[in-house]
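pinging the channel bc i need a second pair of eyes. not urgent but kinda urgent?? the chain im working w is below, pasted from the shared doc
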Amino acid sequence: MRAAVFYATREGQSERVARRIATDLRERHVDADVANVKDLRGPIDWNGYQTAFVVASVHAGRHEKEMIAFVKQHKAELARLHASFLSLTLSQAGAEDRTAALAQREAARADALRMIGVFIGETGWRPWHSLPVAGALAYSKYNFIMKLIMKHIARKAGFEGDTSRDYEFTNWPVVDGFVADTDLLSTPA
C-alpha cells in the first residue's frame, strides 16, 4: 500500500505532523510520500496511492490558502482515496487543557470542530476521517505584529507563556493513534 501525506505550513508544525504520520505509516509497512502543497509542480500520480492524508494549520481563524486551493482542485481524487484531514489549531490545545474549566474546554473543542466545518465548506471536500490536533505557538518565528496577536489570542485562551520561546501542544500519542486505527484505511467514521 502507498499513501500520500499533503501538508501546508507557516512555522513548520504541520510539516512535523505530516512527517510523523509518514513515519507511523512506514512502521505499518505502508509506503508514504510527504509533500508541501506549496512546492508541488506538475501533475500528481493519484493512481499510485491507495490513501491520503491532508494536514493544515489554522491561522487567524482560517486554514492556509494554498491548502484550500489544493483541496478544491483535487477533492475528487481525495474523496476516491478516502483521505483523512488533520486540522492543527490552538483551540484544540485549549480543549485538551485539563487545568481549564469544563465550559472553556468544551468551547475550545467546539471552535476546533467549527474550523474543520469551515474548511469543508470552503473546499467542498468531505474528509473520510478528520481530527483536530493541538498545534504550536512558534513565537521565535513570528514577526513583531504576529507575536502580539498570538500573545493576545493565547492570553484570551488562558495561556500566559513567555514570548521569548516556542511552545508545542501537539498530542503525539493522539496523532499516532489516529494513524494506527485499523479502520482508518478502510471505513468512514
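so The beta strands are 2-8, 31-36, 51-59, 62-63, 84-89, 129-134, 136-137, 167-168. and The chain has six helices and eight strands. — does that match what u expected or am i reading it wrong
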